[in-house]
Amino acid sequence: MRIACPFCGDRDLSEFTCFGEAGCPRPLPDREDAAARFLEAVYLRDNPAGVHRELWYHASGCRSWLEVTRDTRTHEIRAVRFASEAREA
Ligand SMILES: [Zn+2]
């Protein structure tokens, strides 16, 4: 699989690290139920078959955080953008 980094261009998957679902809110650590919420946020996620937005880090390239829209059934990548742009949208 190859990912077209908006800064570096088309690169091999081995240069990236996937950090899971994009747009997944992280619980506040100072809440009384923070441990249960972190368990849910980290381990009890949906695992959809189909188009999915993921957060990737270009560790061996420009070190940018990217939001990748990928079909989990075919690994077809439909869109890549900087994660900072995703937050602004
Ligand atoms: Zn890059």
Descriptive report:
With 89 residues, the protein is α+β, with helices and mostly antiparallel strands. It has one domain (2-24, 34-88): Folate-binding fold. Helix content is 18%, strand content 37%. The protein has a four-stranded antiparallel sheet. A two-stranded antiparallel sheet has the order 1-2. The longest helix has 10 residues, at 34-43. The chain is globular. The model has no long low-confidence stretch (mean pLDDT 91).
Short description:
The protein is α+β, with helices and mostly antiparallel strands. It contains 2 helices and 6 strands; from the N terminus they run E-E-E-H-E-E-E-H. The chain has helices at 34-43, 83-88, and strands spanning 2-5, 9-12, 17-21, 51-57, 65-71, 77-82.
Please describe the structure with a list of short key phrases separated by commas or semicolons.
alpha+beta, 89 residues, binds zinc ion, Folate-binding fold, four-stranded antiparallel beta sheet, two-stranded antiparallel sheet, 2 helices, 18% helix, globular
